[in-house]
User: Which sequence fits this backbone?
């Protein structure tokens, strides 16, 4: 599922009004997540920037993902997704980080099936990772990952705006 353009505009406005700045760290989606946000007028009120870290060396150098974690578990891993989200915040100064890592295909990678994806989300130094198994070709998997990342962001922003004190990660 993905957000409509109107829903995405509402998300951008809500995040901006709440003072929630956002950054992305993308491997699987290769910039699609940031580009989708940037397509909405007013995105500059909340989007700080993003890092496309397609190669593991960039994940380590630019985002601070531990090289040992990548060596032991590979890039398609919940810990890597969390570290990428935290790294996006560290690099940009954003409060919220979103990351994507997974296998878009056409072949499995490092023992992970095509469509196996982790989306990381962090807020104020705490991070979590969400596992997904998408179907379809490369474009469909990347689009689904982008859509799910935006849904996770919307959930976090809604929790923050409601002031529940519980920002669901």
Assistant:
């Amino acid at each position: 599922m993905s957000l409509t353009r109107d829903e995405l505009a509402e998300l951008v406005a809500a995040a901006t009004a709440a003072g929630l700045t956002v950054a992305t760290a993308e491997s699987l989606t290769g910039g699609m997540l940031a580009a989708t946000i940037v397509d909405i007028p007013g995105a500059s009120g909340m989007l700080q920037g993003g890092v496309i870290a397609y190669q593991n060396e960039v994940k380590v150098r630019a985002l601070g993902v531990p090289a040992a974690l990548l060596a032991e578990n590979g890039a398609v891993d919940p810990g890597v997704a969390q570290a990428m989200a935290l790294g996006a915040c560290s690099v940009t100064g954003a409060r919220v980080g979103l990351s994507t890592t997974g296998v878009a295909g056409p072949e499995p990678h490092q023992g992970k099936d095509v469509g196996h994806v982790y989306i990381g989300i962090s807020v104020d130094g705490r991070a979590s990772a969400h596992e997904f198994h998408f179907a379809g070709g490369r474009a469909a998997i990347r689009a689904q990952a982008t859509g799910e990342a935006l849904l996770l962001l919307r959930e976090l922003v809604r929790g923050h705006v409601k002031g529940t004190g519980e920002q669901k990660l």
Summary: The two ends are 19 Å apart (CA to CA). The helical segments are 5-17, 32-38, 56-63, 67-73, 78-92, 138-162.
